Amino acid sequence: MALMDRYTAQLAELDIARMFGNDFFLTWDKTDDELAALFTVADALRTLRENNLSSRIFDSGLGISLFRDNSTRTRFSFASACNLLGLEVQDLDEGKSQIAHGETVRETANMISFMADVIGIRDDMYIGKGHTYQKAVSDAVRQGYADGVLEQVPTLVNLQCDIDHPTQCCADLLHVIHEFGGAQNLRGKKIAMTWAYSPSYGKPLSVPQGVIGLFSRFGMEVVLAHPEGYDIFPEVEELAARQAAASGGSFRRVDSMDEAFAGADIVYPKSWAPFAAMEKRTELYGNGDTAGIQALEKELLAQNADHTDWECTEERMASTKNGSALYLHCLPADISGVSCERGEVAASVFDRYRTPLYKQASYKPYIIAAMIFLAKVKDPVRMLELLERKGRVRQMG
Amino acid sequence: MALMDRYTAQLAELDIARMFGNDFFLTWDKTDDELAALFTVADALRTLRENNLSSRIFDSGLGISLFRDNSTRTRFSFASACNLLGLEVQDLDEGKSQIAHGETVRETANMISFMADVIGIRDDMYIGKGHTYQKAVSDAVRQGYADGVLEQVPTLVNLQCDIDHPTQCCADLLHVIHEFGGAQNLRGKKIAMTWAYSPSYGKPLSVPQGVIGLFSRFGMEVVLAHPEGYDIFPEVEELAARQAAASGGSFRRVDSMDEAFAGADIVYPKSWAPFAAMEKRTELYGNGDTAGIQALEKELLAQNADHTDWECTEERMASTKNGSALYLHCLPADISGVSCERGEVAASVFDRYRTPLYKQASYKPYIIAAMIFLAKVKDPVRMLELLERKGRVRQMG
Amino acid sequence: MALMDRYTAQLAELDIARMFGNDFFLTWDKTDDELAALFTVADALRTLRENNLSSRIFDSGLGISLFRDNSTRTRFSFASACNLLGLEVQDLDEGKSQIAHGETVRETANMISFMADVIGIRDDMYIGKGHTYQKAVSDAVRQGYADGVLEQVPTLVNLQCDIDHPTQCCADLLHVIHEFGGAQNLRGKKIAMTWAYSPSYGKPLSVPQGVIGLFSRFGMEVVLAHPEGYDIFPEVEELAARQAAASGGSFRRVDSMDEAFAGADIVYPKSWAPFAAMEKRTELYGNGDTAGIQALEKELLAQNADHTDWECTEERMASTKNGSALYLHCLPADISGVSCERGEVAASVFDRYRTPLYKQASYKPYIIAAMIFLAKVKDPVRMLELLERKGRVRQMG
Predict the structure, then answer these.
(1) What order of strands is seen across the sheet that includes strand A155-158?
(2) C347-375, pLDDT tens digit by residue?
(3) Cα–Cα distance between B143 and B159 in angstroms, integer?
(4) Which of A293, A329, B96, B263 keeps 20 to 30 A from B299, CA to CA?
(5) What is the ipTM of this complex?
(6) Which residues from A are below 8 Å from B77, CB to CB?
(7) Which residues of chain B neighbour A84 with C-beta distances below 8 Å?
(8) For residue A23, what is the DSSP state?
(9) What pLDDT band is residue C285 in, cutting at 50, 70 and 90?
């Protein structure tokens, strides 16, 4: 049997015509079929590589990356994905001041896109900004294509915005799917997406939002836990609730880490900043109020310090299903006694889950590659078959 | 008929033997035939890409970029051109202090060139420096090749120097050629290369110089306009005058934006710094006189402020041929009320010309690719035919 | 006769099975056969390139570079080597603070390696750190592969550590082999690895250590010369002595540049910092003692200033074998009257040897490529034959 058979058989059942030529902003923009296709193609591309077969669909072309926040993992994942498909990464290292108004977004977007097949953007620092910016870039290049300026529409891949972190959360979910032996086995499983203490300030909301916005679609019992004042976007909570109901699962918010962990199959303890504080910071930043930002930071760190007991301890892990819930983190984690005095997770817990955590991260390059692949390839079934049949080796030797 | 036929037919008529193995410093180093070949190859490469055919002539190899001034457009154009032909870009991020004397230029040039097929340099800040530096790099790598140090001579491409900006101006001209339906239709057309007000300081002279140095070769009426004190290199004015006379056109300098715009077919209103001031800055910089530079900057901004009425307004556009001259800019433009209070161009004018402006910019990657192609390929006609015949697709899918 | 015949004939005689899948940390980790294979493959790859034949063994894949110290030469050499073999370079630009403990090394190493075929690291600033760090990275990715996190083990290439600089010293030696017409002709030749004055501070010990640790294996008379107080690692001196004895050569340390130069066939005059001072600096750095580091720097510069007469002058060159020893330097050199008032070498000496010096440097990309090739290709003989037989051109044209 051919390597690709199981993947092409799955893909053939799915309605994914709308993925061709489209961007990837938020997981909830995508249908269940489209998400299933994403996971299938990610697995297929991984299988090709594991069998030393090339997945290059591009002979030349650029993948543009724009990181408005530090990144190592996502940066390397994006570079890996582009390289896997045959695109060369060109990083746009902008001065922050250049992007002051929509006018310039439109111009910059076109100026970098003459030979760009994909644009990956991370812009997660300010509420109401990142997603809006990504949309503006996408609109600009589509207009550029319509006007005959660009010869192709670069696909936009959201590498993290203020709302969602789809490449991370889809990698998380693909990891979970593999650990549980299939998406169908997630039905009825309990996942605890919970706040955890960190001695740092201002971590984005996109991971908790992305997790509840994605995992609530699989019939799971989704529990969001955080101390008072650490709310996330209310719209995403409402979305999670709707999706959970529709998929035969449930969503609820609690203010106790213990309650979230009790009997959980999966735990995702992670620090984030309060939504209200992030909104305030966005406003202060907009006003150039540096003193205000510093005062806010101080206040937030003090607020954090009231909740040092929100830690993923051995005791809490023991309370999960059979004492062995799958522990997730997007990394790097704040590990108590290792990277900080007190943090999100006990060192012994982290150590025990190190290998699955690294595996979780290892899906991200394939998820990104699959996003690009599905946006660029009109007939993914035929293309996977073709790549196998051509049998071009990735590495001679 | 084959896609490449019209291009190869044109190329076959041209005497371009001297382009092979040569650099691209200044447009006026090149014969009319050589420029015609450049435009033809740029169009041919664009046609190949638009038909999803690969233009990779390199299986491996590096394109070295060295930007001694900020750049987004030219940086991405160079990266795109290299990628289109199969070269990987490696950026030389030098500390400015490293290049103190010719000795080190020679060494650095060789050290980065062991596997370099092309070197692109932007060095436009100081009068008398950029072109000289590019020549020194070219001399060094040619000597390195002669000495058996290098296995190939990297082609030098001027990505902007103190004298000319050939990748920009050739892209400008190719855009104009397409807009007017052929280079032969430029005969007798009036182009106004005029200074315009900007609230910034020290913009290079290479664009106005490059424009009059190039457009004066096509039988056009070339008018250079600027306020008193904003002179450009006198040698380039003399060159423009000679070329205009030889090609059956004219060149003149005026001190009125209105006079330049009246009846013009093409307008290129753009800010630049006075030649004398740039010379003074170069001297101050050489002496490390920071206070002097700041004083000069202040003086120049005050001088600029006397000429805020040099703006490309709707009224002035109305005075051009049929009120619809082709508006050119190398971007980014200083747009009144958008990127600054008062600037080079009225917002409504800029808005109306946005699409042609973006198209103008879109030629730059192909111009750069054509420069490399013609320096690297001995028989361009045969190679274009070969690329089409091989029919390697750029993107599968 | 085929181009590769002479190389494959040499390789076929060598026992190099252990190179496949292994890293390159220190030259003395490698057997004589393995070093011979390295030089043979470097020459073979150069021959392929000189004959316009592709050496791409990778269709896609990443080469990760991590430079914890400034670099131009090694950076471009690594980029060239990766590109020659078909890998795209992705630079890890770390904040120094991120790598605080072994925990994070392990994590970072895995996070950047999902699609990494090679990792090149330069980490030469602190005694006891660089080599240890490189080992930790290698251990981490091997563990990651064993755990199923990574799909391939990235090969680690030491681009300079606190102990050795193998890519430099092997390029140096390959240059010497070519200049002397074969490694067998080095027997009995005298090489002077000597300290030289420089007005700078803190140059690494890895070059003098690497040179005596490598050249002492070829039956040569190896002389290390430096002023009192400029010791290198004692372990490396002991190693050099043992190797020299075993190979029928000799090793000795002297405190006179004149004595080292007298009758030498090869001279390598170069500044370095005293081992004891480097140890002290490492300790001060570890304690974050900035004032202490500044005081040490002052002290070292004063100590240096006592030895300005340690310069490679025309007089000293005249005392070498036939007055024409081969002059080596890893570049850039501190040239008296050119890059500084007094330095390592007289300007006239440097000028006379410029071409051989550049040739010396030109071997580095091929040495690095050979290191990667031998770690990645199971049967190098067959692969070189295959590359020639396939005859894929590097540059069409």
Answers:
(1) A88-91, A62-67, A116-122, A155-158
(2) 999 999 999 999 999 999 999 999 999 99
(3) 22
(4) B96
(5) 0.95
(6) 114
(7) none
(8) -
(9) confident
